Write the structure tokens for this entry.
Amino acid sequence: MILESGDKLKNYMEILVDQVYSEVKEKYDICKSKKCENDIKAITLNSLPPMYFLSSTSEGEKKAFLLDRQQRITVLTKITEAVDIVCGKCEYKEKNEG
Ligand SMILES: [Zn+2]
């Protein structure tokens, strides 16, 4: 059985990290550098287990994963840690702090 090219597996943890990161970006005054953003997401994703759903998984279950409160708190904590690592000494941060 050959998978269609459109059926690429999605890591839902990555989607969740993207979502939580955009919220963090709006709420807190964190560095807007695209380079830092990529590094922050990479570090965050490395410290979290990937999440792949089977084809039998319903949209509701996927949605529930993305909306899970405890899950989002865990991701938020990891993002905050990653921001400290990446932007602790990045050139953009210094400008923000004045
Ligand atoms: Zn930065």
About this structure: Residues 40 and 85 are 8 Å apart (CA to CA).
